[in-house]
Amino acid sequence: TDTSGKANINFTLPDNLTTWQIESIGLTKDTRLGVGYKEITSRKELMLTPLKPRFIIPGDEFSIGAKVYNQTGQDQRFDIRLIDSSFNSEDDLNKSLALKDKESSTIYFNVSAPPDKQDGIHTFTVSAQDNIHEDTVEKTIKIRHNDTYEVVATAGYTKNNKAGEYIFLPDNIIKDKGELTVKTSATLAVFLSDALNYMLTFPLRLQRTNRQQIKHNRNY
User: Fold this and answer.
1) What is the pLDDT of residues 144-191, one digit of tens each?
2) What are the phi and psi torsion angles at 188 (to 5°)?
3) Helix%, strand%, coil% for the chain, nearest 5
4) Cβ-count burial of 220 within 10 angstroms (0-12 exposed, 13-18 middle, 19+ buried)?
């Protein structure tokens, strides 16, 4: 430290936009101790945060948002663009946004997901810039199928050599998806598989019940 007890330290922060806590410890020759804490925030002069859904279904119509933070120290007008997008859109993908210093605002782009792209991800890039500053972010959105699975089943028995079972499927099924499972057995035990599995663990279940009852009685 200098004669007034002050010290200047220069250091480089990691490339993380977050809040940091500094702990300063001072110690004199006669072992007097002082501790101080200070928080600082590392941030960009111009920062853009994309706003997007967690997933989309082919054919969805939705909005991609861009929240822009002006921390340049002066009022600015920024050009906000949605570029390199795999979406369809009739909206203007180049917009203008005026922000005062320390002000933030959000712009939305109306887009739709192509119905013919059924798998994978959609990629898009959002950019904000003026004559000096620029922040560009690339994001992805996962594609999910618009599927609701339903189980339809039937069962029966016969002494004949042949038997017919009819499964009625919903009218709105997707014909190229699904499966058919057929199980047969020479005895009626095929209908008792769940019950037999339960009976196999019955002694253990009974022991657990008895132990719980004994513990319950001891509490009284």
Assistant:
1) 887 777 777 777 777 788 888 888 777 777 777 778 888 777 666 666
2) -75, -5
3) 15, 35, 50
4) exposed
